[in-house]
Amino acid sequence: MEKLVIAGGVPLRGEVNISGSKNATLPLMAASILAAGKSVLRSVPELRDVLTMGSLLKKMGAGFSLRDSVCEMDTSGLNEFTAPYELVKTMRASVLVLGPLVARYGQARVSLPGGCAIGARPINLHLMGLERMGAEIELAEGYVKARAKRLNGASIYFDVPTVTGTENLMMAAALAKGTTVLENCAREPEVVDLADALIRMGARIEGAGGSLIEIEGVDELRPYGHDVIPDRIEAATFAIASAITGGDILIKTSRPDFMDAIMIKLRETRVDAVKTPGGLRVKANGNSGRPASVNITTMPYPGFPTDVQAQFMALMCVANGTSIINETVFENRFMHVPELQRMGAQIVLQGGMASVTGVEKLKGAQVMATDLRASASLVLAALAAEGESEIHRLYHLDRGYERMEEKLRRLGAQIRRVPEQRG
Ligand code: EPZ
Asked: How many other β-carbons are positioned within 10 Å of the β-carbon of residue 140?
């Protein structure tokens, strides 16, 4: 186990390159199952979750390699259709192999993901869609067993916009017989990136990025070559790192057009956030240095992303005034609050609402990461805090951020990764 040791109070300045999107990479890796042969993915981040998805593909008999941000998946030898509990429990996104396996091989056995730190996160909508497409779904011993001679096109309505639900069913529909209409879809850029790759494989898809997606099934798909879009959540994290430390960072290889809600909210805090060719530049509020307090409500894309809620809360902890943070997507995504309070943050929770009263300075402390974005929030708070902080349970951070401490150090952060002492 390792921990991060951070000496806070240093304004971060310079340039950072954003890695490929984790939440685009994972469905794209699952999509390789839909075609025989070798698919190639470029700009892939070296993350724990990517390696976990690679292990899952290898366990199913497919080839997987990741070197210098290029991922190769060869599904010619795929002969196993199970996603086992020991892998799924470490990464819920394993459920993304369900649709492709049923669509290509007519069968799948995928462990139910179980809950996670941020909420129950059911997959009922994934299963509802597959059933409407004619799959027989059985739940037994904690596993979903799905079978179908061939999936049929269907009309499917999502009670709530689900990102991986939309992705799973778009992949399943690509090889179904007939046309599928998905309604109330998730509109995230990662859904669009997946649709772009599927179309390159020969799929017939219209409307990705909107609430209604129409997929006309084909009999066969071919492997793809694809460049993953940049990670908008990592870009937002570094934008907030600049704001919270009083810095000035040029965030390169990023797509600010995916980040309207974040840019608007950062500007409301009087942070200077401007689009540049190939990225964005974020400078802290030049006058008093402290951001203005601003209210946010997390919503499905294009609303303010729930994956940036914890990081934005860290910024509001040092803002001038009180901000209300309303988390509407997940029922328990405030695990970072007790840890921020250990650093002197003034936060009051009321159900899905957090009321944050900014303080002049946070104080360094020993804190514990609980989930991926909570750990990013603690890093940001520690970078701004007076004194030294230690962040424990780093494996949460490593799931979604590629070489984060290296990128931060290059921006001037006093940060190092050290082994946890035993005992
Ligand atoms: C994706 O998770 C992301 N993960 C999450 O990012 C992100 O927080 C989330 O979308 C919301 O944007 C990946 O893309 C791999 P959902 P997903 O299905 O698809 C409910 C990170 O930090 N729901 O869009 O699992 C669900 O409970 C991770 O990178 C059902 O009720 O989220 C939630 O309240 C964390 N039934 C809401 O929908 C279902 O069948 C949105 O969940 C499916 C979802």
From this structure: 8
Q: Are 103 and 96 in contact (CB under 8 A)?
A: no
CATH of the domain at 361: 3.65.10.10
Q: How many structural domains comprise the chain?
A: 2
Q: In this structure, are 315 and 406 located in the same domain?
A: yes
**Per-residue pLDDT tens digits for 232-242:** 999 999 999 99
Token representation of residue 374: 């909570």
Q: Which of 194, 227, 260 is the last residue of a domain?
A: 227
Band (pLDDT 50/70/90 cuts) for residue 24 is very high
Question: What pLDDT is attached to residue 85?
Answer: 92
273 contacts 239 by C-beta, under 8 angstroms: yes
Active site residue 116: yes
Ligand 1 closest atom vs CA 329: 34
DSSP string, 45-56: ---HHHHHHHHH
Ligand 1 environment, Cβ below 6 A:
22-23, 26, 92-93, 119, 121-126, 160, 162-165, 186, 306-307, 329-330, 372-373, 400
Q: Which of 160, 233, 301 to mutate to test the pocket of ligand 1 (most atoms within 8 A of CB)?
A: 160
Report whether pLDDT(423) > 60: no
- Domain coverage including residue 60: 22-227
pTM, full prediction: 0.97
Average the pLDDT over each of 76-90, 111-125, 316-330 and give the range with the smallest value: 111-125
Atom of ligand 1 nearest to the CA of 96: 15
* CA–CA gap between residue 84 and residue 399 (Å, rounded): 19
Q: Are residues 194 and 286 in the same domain?
A: no
Mutate to test the pocket of ligand 1, among 163, 211, 262 (most ligand atoms within 8 A of CB): 163
